[in-house]
Design brief:
This protein has strands at residues 3-7, 10-13, 18-25, 34-39, 45-51, 58-60, 68-73, 78-83, 92-98, 115-116, 120-125. The protein is mainly β. The protein has no helices and eleven strands. β5 and β6 (58-60) form a beta hairpin. 33% of the residues are buried.
Length: 126
């Protein structure tokens, strides 16, 4: 059974940093493209970043480019999202997701991903 469990969310002041973790079980992340998404109340779930399984190429949404960094530790079967210079508009429920194994093309849509975590809340105060 596949499980993705996010952690590391919390309340932080604007300008601060958080590092989110997503621990995977039931799959080996080394062959999965992994993504982070977020959803604010009343809004759709939006793409933030992915890291490709083959070569670790990354892509970011324009809204977080230069502030957020996605990385993976295959030995720990964990993906991370380092978030710096946080803004109040970053407040949301953050989800990690895994695309099907060895997918050639990465994805930025929620429908591109097959497995999801339960989310971790990030709140940025002004």
């Amino acid at each position: 059974q596949v499980q993705l469990v996010e952690s590391g969310g919390g309340l932080v002041q604007a300008g601060g940093s958080l590092r989110l973790s997503c621990a995977a079980s039931g799959l080996t992340i080394s062959v999965y493209t992994l993504g982070w998404f977020r959803q604010a109340p009343g809004k759709e779930r939006d793409f933030i970043a992915y890291i490709h399984w083959n070569g670790d190429s990354t892509r970011y949404a324009d809204s977080v480019k230069g502030r957020f960094t996605i990385s993976r530790d295959n030995a720990k079967n964990t993906v991370y999202l380092q978030m710096n210079s946080l803004k109040p508009e970053d407040t949301a429920l953050y989800y990690c997701a895994a695309r099907r194994p060895r997918a050639v093309l990465p994805g930025t849509k929620t429908s591109d991903y097959d497995y999801w975590g339960q989310g971790t809340q990030v709140t940025v105060s002004s």
